[in-house]
């Protein structure tokens, strides 16, 4: 069986694959493949290990006539045309659960960083602008007693809620289906979408990206939010209208934002959002702890090999 990985994988992972399949991989750990490079590389592939920057659309899938499985090294699969893969009899798998805690941790790290202005605080110390103690120096936003609104109450959304409870926050959420068991277990309350926007002191987006959710948070939605609220997006960039977010942050209609994801990644360094002091940013590292990333890689390999072996994968998408 011929397997291609669109990123260089850790040696112990690729060694495992080489024992069982005819394995090749893209030469870089960081550099994404172009569409043309991808189409060339997968012509003979029975299996692909993919990452979220690979656009596996109908045209790309058509260039891989032997393909049996796409094993995605992520939980989000919005870069894959799953319908087309299913039509072609190609199994798609992903890596849910193993990254839930790491991603919820990073979400909370960003939330805290925005609440307490950590990037500005760090810069003040490093750049020699720390003059003395002053009463309202870098005065931030209190978590205890504040309301956190979570859009998307699945695995990671609920893990964020559990962390919020540890900070004595009031947890409200919106999701397409209500989650009565999680509400009781965590102590969270379902609210309508607009009510979550209106009530949240911290708004956390934890939905998957789908075309119908594009710019779910735009000018109108931001206008409903409290002007001292903080928005945290560690889900997918396309869920937020970045131009509207920039205007809201610049004009004092929103206190701050913390973003791990952007509509275009890597985000261009001249992006207007990066000029604002009230924006905390990270380069899409939600799941990036060493333990989680290795678990994700190992699950990706197990899923891939299971399908090629005619077995059911552990975490199928289709
Ligand atoms: P999940 O367990 O599937 O949770 C997603 C939740 O969103 C589900 O509860 C689902 O409702 C709800 N939902 C889906 N479509 C919806 C819609 N159209 N309207 C309203 N609610 C909708 O997924 P997860 O594991 O928590 O991951 C969530 C997302 O986080 C991923 O898809 C990915 O994009 C992102 N993520 C980012 C990073 C990072 O590095 N920053 C890391 C991991 C994941 P139901 O329960 O009714 O299906």
From TrEMBL:
<dbReference type="GO" id="GO:0016491">
    <property type="term" value="F:oxidoreductase activity"/>
</dbReference>
<comment type="similarity">
    <text>Belongs to the D-isomer specific 2-hydroxyacid dehydrogenase family.</text>
</comment>
<dbReference type="InterPro" id="IPR029752">
    <property type="entry name" value="D-isomer_DH_CS1"/>
</dbReference>
<dbReference type="InterPro" id="IPR029753">
    <property type="entry name" value="D-isomer_DH_CS"/>
</dbReference>
<protein>
    <submittedName>
        <fullName>2-hydroxyacid dehydrogenase</fullName>
        <ecNumber>1.1.1.-</ecNumber>
    </submittedName>
</protein>
<dbReference type="InterPro" id="IPR006140">
    <property type="entry name" value="D-isomer_DH_NAD-bd"/>
</dbReference>
<feature type="domain" description="D-isomer specific 2-hydroxyacid dehydrogenase NAD-binding">
    <location>
        <begin position="108"/>
        <end position="286"/>
    </location>
</feature>
<dbReference type="InterPro" id="IPR006139">
    <property type="entry name" value="D-isomer_2_OHA_DH_cat_dom"/>
</dbReference>
<dbReference type="InterPro" id="IPR036291">
    <property type="entry name" value="NAD(P)-bd_dom_sf"/>
</dbReference>
<dbReference type="InterPro" id="IPR050223">
    <property type="entry name" value="D-isomer_2-hydroxyacid_DH"/>
</dbReference>
<dbReference type="Pfam" id="PF02826">
    <property type="entry name" value="2-Hacid_dh_C"/>
</dbReference>
<feature type="domain" description="D-isomer specific 2-hydroxyacid dehydrogenase catalytic">
    <location>
        <begin position="4"/>
        <end position="318"/>
    </location>
</feature>
<dbReference type="Pfam" id="PF00389">
    <property type="entry name" value="2-Hacid_dh"/>
</dbReference>
<keyword id="KW-0560">Oxidoreductase</keyword>
């Amino acid at each position: 069986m011929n397997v291609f990985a669109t990123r260089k994988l850790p040696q112990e992972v690729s060694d495992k694959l080489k024992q069982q399949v005819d394995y090749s991989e893209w030469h870089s750990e960081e550099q994404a493949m172009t569409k043309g490079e991808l189409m060339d590389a997968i012509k003979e592939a029975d299996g692909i290990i993919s990452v979220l920057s690979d656009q596996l659309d109908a045209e790309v899938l058509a260039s891989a006539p032997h393909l049996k499985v796409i094993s995605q090294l992520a939980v989000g699969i919005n870069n894959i045309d799953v319908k087309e893969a299913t039509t072609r009899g190609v199994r798609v798998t992903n890596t849910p659960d193993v990254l839930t805690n790491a991603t919820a941790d990073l979400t909370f790290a960003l939330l805290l960083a925005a609440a307490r202005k950590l990037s500005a605080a760090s810069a003040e110390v490093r750049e020699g602008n720390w003059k003395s103690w002053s009463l309202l120096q870098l005065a931030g936003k209190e978590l205890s007693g504040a309301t956190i609104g979570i859009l998307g109450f699945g695995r990671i959304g609920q893990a964020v809620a559990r962390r919020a409870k540890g900070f004595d926050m009031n947890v409200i959420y919106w999701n397409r289906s209500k989650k009565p068991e999680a509400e009781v277990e965590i102590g969270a309350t379902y609210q309508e979408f607009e009510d979550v926007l209106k009530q949240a002191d911290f708004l956390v987006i934890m939905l998957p990206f789908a075309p119908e959710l594009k710019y779910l948070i735009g000018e109108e939605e931001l206008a409903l939010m409290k002007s001292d609220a903080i928005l945290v997006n560690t889900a997918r960039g396309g869920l937020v209208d970045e131009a509207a977010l920039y205007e809201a942050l610049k004009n004092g209609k929103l206190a701050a934002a913390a973003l791990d994801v952007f509509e275009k990644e890597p985000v261009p360094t001249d992006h207007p959002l990066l000029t604002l002091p009230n924006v905390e940013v990270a380069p899409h590292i939600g799941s990036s702890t060493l333990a989680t990333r290795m678990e994700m890689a190992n699950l990706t390999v197990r899923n891939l090999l299971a399908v090629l072996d005619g077995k059911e994968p552990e975490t199928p998408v289709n």
